Structures are given as structure tokens and as C-alpha cells.
């Protein structure tokens, strides 16, 4: 820390702490609802993102009012107290939410930059102090008084804003890339639907005519968080994927390659799908890797599997109740409109550039995330001097 920086406890930087971790609907005289206000728990919070949105439960208006007399506001920071421990997320929405199991919410005082405090809480220094104050062996947890004692190092407010502005600009660009990719994927679906939707065109073949399941194997040691896909890091509602939080302990897993399409085979109604843009990837056994029989079918295969109709078909043939899985044989019988050479060439002319842009955006986001992670400790220690910058 630079000599002209200050230090305080986290509690001194806050104006509000929200801690309702012991509450449940039954304790408040009610129950969960089928819709309404979302109730986030620790399993939904990873540093920098919300995960497993399909597992988020809901409460009614009346339950929300009883549960959250002090509401989470835009810019507040969520912290997981255990299982998992120490994950940090800054709420970036005006949506009203419930803090459910194992979650703290804190609001930063106006005398500090909230974004700066958020980013500082993600540093190794702050995370290390949280772990040093935690208790437990099998399940590590942190009590509120110990959380508030954790130290925060900070420069004067102008520098806080500059530091946070640099890091926020990187995260905003990553978010923009994700939104662009979602839009491009939707455009591919619209083009496919117009030309090859089997509900408006007579099917002339089956999915098995254009693809097969991957039989390749790849050593897990050759994979990284960004090249391993499981039902955990694939996002619902066709939102692609995030980096895996861990790799499997097995020595090998299913190999995937550029142009393959991945679909989660567990609870197919969550519509988890990823177009593979790397040459060397792997997926878990809970994910189906579709390999196009010919390279020119890659974009067409993605368009086929991206359609809501395909997921409905997959759900209709799934087996099991609590954890339904798609039937691999039934899936390959999915009826499709086989394109002729001219229509396939036209489709590829329109959609392949979109898929290439998706790949470019993902690579840029990966580089930006690495840049952010490299800058974070240098900015937060004062090693990179921003005192003369005016952003």
C-alpha cells in the first residue's frame, strides 16, 4: 500500500448492512411462490456474476415486504457467508430482490466510491483476510462482526473513482460483448426459422443426417476454465456459458472442436446451448456434443438446435422426473428440413460471419478478463499511480 493511502475496517466504509440469513418463508408465516420477487441464495452468487438463475425461488409481494424491510438497491454489494464462501457481486439492477440463505448485503457510504469498495473486496488481500477470520473445517463460514472488521485500503475519493472507472470500463465491454453475442444468436435463429422451420416447411430428413455425437476424448489436463463445459457453467435460456469454477477430477472427458454444438442433457427445458469456437475443448457426460458430419453444416446445425422447437422435442422425449435427461436416440430422430446446396450456401453466407463475430467477441472478452485480473492488484496497491489521471 502506498504511504499516502489510508486504511479502515469494512464496517467504517458502510452505511448499511442487511443480514437476513436465518429467515425462511415458513418462519415468516408463508411459503415460496411460483412468481413474484426473486430470492437469491449463496449458490446464485459468484464473483462478478449471477449463476444458476433457474434455481432462484420466488416470494409474493406480502412476503417480500415482511422479509426485506430494508431493500437491496442498485450498487449494493452481495457477499456469500458460506457454501460457497467469499463470493462478491455488485447488484447492478433496480430489480427488488430477497436476500435468502447465506447472503449478506452491504451499502457503501457516500464518502467512499462503491465501485472501488466492490473491486477491493475481490482482491487477494481482502479475500485472504476474510478467510483468516472465517471458522469451520468442512464448511467454512464468516460471521457478520468478523466480516465488518476486514480491512480496506484506499486512496482519496478521486483516485478511488479513477481506479474503479478503469476496471468498470473493462467489465462493461465484456458485458456488451455478451449482449452482442446473444443478439447475433437470435438473428441466426430468425434466419434459420424463415428458411428451414419444419412447422412451415415439410421435413425431409432427421438430425442424424447432418451430425453425430462426439466420440473423441481429451485429457482434462489440456483444458482450462474457459474450454470446459458442464451443465453448471452453461447458462439457461441460450445465454452461452461462463468460465467453469473447477475441472473434473477424472483423467479424460468428451472432446469437442470448433464448429461442434453443445446442449445440456439434464433438464433440457433450461435451453442450455453453446457453439464451440475453440479447437480444443471438453464437456462433461451431462452435455451432448453434436458434431456436424460435414464442416458446412456447422452453422446449420447450430440454427437447428437453437430453436425452441428442438428443445420442446427434447423435453417431450426426456426420461426421469426430478432430473429429466434427453433420450439420445430420440433426439437424433428430430425431423428437419435438409437444405439443398444453394440454400445451405446462402444460409452460410449470412450466418457464418455472425458465428465468427461471436468467436471474436468471446476471445476479446477472455483477454479483457485477463487484463482486468492483472490490473486489479496493481491498481489496488497503488503500484500503478492514477493520481494524475482524470477519467
| Number of discrete helical segments | 9
Indicate the percent of residues in helices: 25-40%
Rg, please? 24 Å
Straight-line N-to-C gap: 22 Å
> How would a crystallographer describe the biggest sheet?
4 strands, antiparallel
What shape does the CA trace take? globular
Strand content: 15-25%
Mean pLDDT across residues: 94
Query: What spatial order of strands do you see in the largest sheet?
Result: 2-10-7-8
Helix-strand sequence = EEEEEEHEEEEHHHEHEEEEEEEEEHHHEH
Describe the structure in your own words:
The protein has 391 residues and is α+β, with helices and mostly antiparallel strands. Helix content is 35%, strand content 20%. The chain is built from 9 helices and 21 strands. It has helices at residues 61-67, 114-121, 124-133, 144-149, 157-196, 298-306, 308-316, 328-332, 341-381, and strands at 6-9, 14-19, 37-40, 45-46, 49-50, 57-59, 77-81, 85-90, 98-99, 103-108, 151-154, 205-206, 211-213, 217-219, 228-229, 252-256, 261-264, 273-275, 281-283, 287-292, 335-336. The strands form 7 sheets. A 4-stranded antiparallel sheet has the order 2-10-7-8, covered by helices on one side. Strands 13-20-17-18 form a 4-stranded antiparallel sheet, covered by helices on one side. Helix 5 (157-196) crosses helix 6 (298-306) and helix 5 runs antiparallel to helix 9. The protein is globular and about 70 Å long. The two termini are 22 Å apart.
What's this entry about, in short?
Helices cover 35% and strands 20% of the residues.
